[in-house]
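User: I've been trying to design a sequence by hand for this structure and keep getting stuck. Would you show me what you'd pick, starting by listing the structure so we're on the same page?

Assistant: Good idea, let's start from the same input. This is the structure you sent:
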């Protein structure tokens, strides 16, 4: 007769149910509610909650021998902390989110499969199962996550795109005479793109019409070259491209010839920013103004450089100036030039969230409060005849007087523990659109008043468009943008969604206003043409452009489309 603690009488079904619920929580919720707080909390809470329930079952309801019960829990706990210590730094969150559910699954399957084995063989096999499941993660490296929070894995010791770039293309010198005079003269006569999302920071292009039949008239590739990691876009001025990259321990502001993609100059800062979700490199886009380049690095270094040869004009540590700590995903504020000021957001406390620097000297001219967490950039607009700088943060929206940083008005729309990333959008009648991911949606607010008193009114809040880090565009009474991974169109009068369609991951877009046309750059590096038509979703063309995860904003200048990500950049002739 078998004893009560005989391993062959193992009660396995509660463990199987716990693992099933854990996997549904961790991996299933994101399918139903992608890009929402529910997905985030399920991915964070599911592994830990499932593991705790599994321990309770194994200790008090499994009927396993007590030595097996205590040994099993100890093996999992010791295995978890061991792999955290041994794994690549990029894998710690991955071990938590994916490793714990895998070990829970293999533990239950292993316990059932070995239930009738001899004690020594069973116990050694269970230890091997736990070690093997956790040990798998010590062999891998995370190259970041996608917009849907899915992890991108590679073998731990395989070369990254940055490694391959550094091995094949040494960091070039400060100044290289690679631009032909004819190329520069031709490019200077073309339309310019002075900074983040263009001159108005709205990714809207007027006066341009392109062929839409890419079967007969596809975009012509002009050049392609590798680039260092970073989520900076381009500024295009005077026949040159300006962007930011990471190359090893050097964070660089780089200048390339727009016509050929060949390097012209770089400016180096010996600093490196990296975090496991988005990887290495600077986040902000340089701004070019009056022959100078203004660029904020991911660790808070703000440089003003001569656009011709990278000669330093001035340098500031914006983080130190404002007492700000480096945000989780790095400083991402693309400098805004207003009159004789360069304005950036750092999130410093004590009324120093925003700082304005003198363009000539680099000395701080004013500080202003505007939330503490933001990956958006300062945005200049005019409302009711009053120029103002808008700032979106995790607290809501703040408007500042550009002359001295005086707060004109505020609108509270707090994100619990979050930060807004997209730019505000302005309607034709001067209302402001605030886009927010994590299920919160799009809000339209109306402003009336003047310099003395402002009235802020919420017109509507819609969940028909929930932009996470994907900026939207406004056109003919409608807003077009990404609702998670799918394009969406919302009517500005009511906030009602008109359509939703087309899967492009978490990409970016721009608008050709004269042609009612969206140029979409997908998260997978594809280019697509989509009609900016409220009557329905219609994709006109699609083609591959660049390889790798692509979150950077596309740029169109002089009929040439410039795209990049953290691995390569390319130029395509659209006209």
């Amino acid at each position: 007769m078998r004893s009560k603690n005989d391993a062959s009488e193992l009660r396995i079904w509660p463990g199987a149910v716990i693992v099933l619920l854990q996997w549904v929580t961790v991996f299933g919720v994101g399918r139903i509610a992608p890009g929402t707080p529910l997905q985030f909390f399920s991915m964070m809470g599911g592994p830990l909650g499932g593991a705790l329930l599994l321990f309770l079952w194994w200790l008090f309801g499994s009927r396993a021998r007590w030595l097996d019960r205590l040994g099993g829990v100890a093996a999992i706990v010791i295995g978890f902390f061991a792999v955290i210590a041994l794994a690549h730094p990029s894998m710690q969150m991955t071990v938590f989110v994916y490793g714990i559910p895998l070990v829970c699954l293999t533990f239950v399957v292993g316990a059932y499969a070995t239930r009738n084995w001899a004690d020594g063989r069973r116990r050694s096999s269970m230890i091997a199962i736990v070690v093997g499941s956790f040990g798998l993660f010590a062999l891998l490296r995370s190259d970041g996550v996608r917009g849907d929070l899915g992890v991108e894995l590679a073998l731990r010791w395989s070369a990254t795109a940055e490694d391959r770039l550094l091995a094949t293309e040494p960091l070039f010198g400060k100044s290289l005479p690679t631009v032909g005079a004819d190329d520069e003269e031709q490019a200077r006569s073309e339309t310019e793109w002075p900074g983040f999302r263009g001159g108005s920071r709205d990714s809207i292009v007027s006066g341009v019409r392109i062929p839409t039949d890419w079967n007969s008239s596809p975009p012509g590739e002009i050049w392609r070259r590798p680039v260092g990691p970073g989520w900076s876009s381009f500024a295009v001025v005077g026949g040159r491209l300006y962007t930011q990259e990471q190359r090893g321990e050097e964070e660089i502001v780089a200048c390339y010839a727009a016509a050929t993609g060949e390097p012209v100059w770089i400016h180096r800062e010996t600093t490196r920013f990296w975090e496991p979700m988005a990887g290495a490199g600077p986040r902000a886009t340089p701004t070019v103004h009056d022959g100078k380049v203004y660029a904020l690095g991911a660790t808070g270094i703000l440089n003003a450089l001569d656009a011709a040869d990278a000669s330093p004009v001035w340098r500031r540590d914006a983080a130190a100036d404002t007492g700000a700590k480096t945000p989780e995903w790095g400083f991402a504020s693309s400098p805004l030039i207003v009159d004789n000021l360069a304005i950036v957001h750092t999130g410093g406390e004590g009324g120093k969230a925003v700082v304005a620097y003198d363009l000539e000297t680099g000395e701080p001219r004013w500080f202003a409060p505007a939330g503490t967490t933001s990956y958006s950039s300062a945005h200049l607009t005019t409302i009711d005849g009053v120029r103002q700088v808008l700032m979106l943060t995790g607290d809501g929206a703040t408007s500042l007087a550009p002359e001295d940083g005086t707060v004109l008005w505020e609108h509270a729309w707090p994100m619990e523990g979050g930060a807004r990333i997209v730019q505000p959008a302005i309607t034709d009648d001067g209302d402001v659109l605030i886009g927010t991911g994590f299920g919160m949606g799009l809000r339209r607010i109306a402003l009336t008043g003047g310099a003395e008193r402002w009235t802020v009114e919420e017109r509507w809040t819609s969940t028909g468009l929930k932009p996470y880090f994907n900026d939207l565009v406004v056109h003919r009474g409608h807003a077009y943008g990404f609702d998670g991974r799918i394009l969406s169109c919302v009517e500005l009068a009511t906030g009602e969604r008109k359509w939703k369609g087309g899967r492009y991951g978490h990409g970016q877009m721009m608008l050709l206003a004269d042609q009612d046309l969206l140029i979409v750059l997908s998260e997978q590096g594809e280019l697509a043409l989509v009609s900016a038509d409220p009557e329905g979703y219609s994709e006109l063309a699609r083609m591959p452009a660049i390889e790798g995860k692509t979150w950077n904003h596309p740029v169109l200048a002089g009929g040439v489309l410039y795209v990049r990500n953290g691995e390569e950049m390319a130029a395509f002739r659209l006209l």
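That's my pick for every position. To get oriented when you compare it with your attempt: Residues 1-5, 174-190 have pLDDT under 50 and may be disordered. The chain has two domains: 7-142, 194-573.
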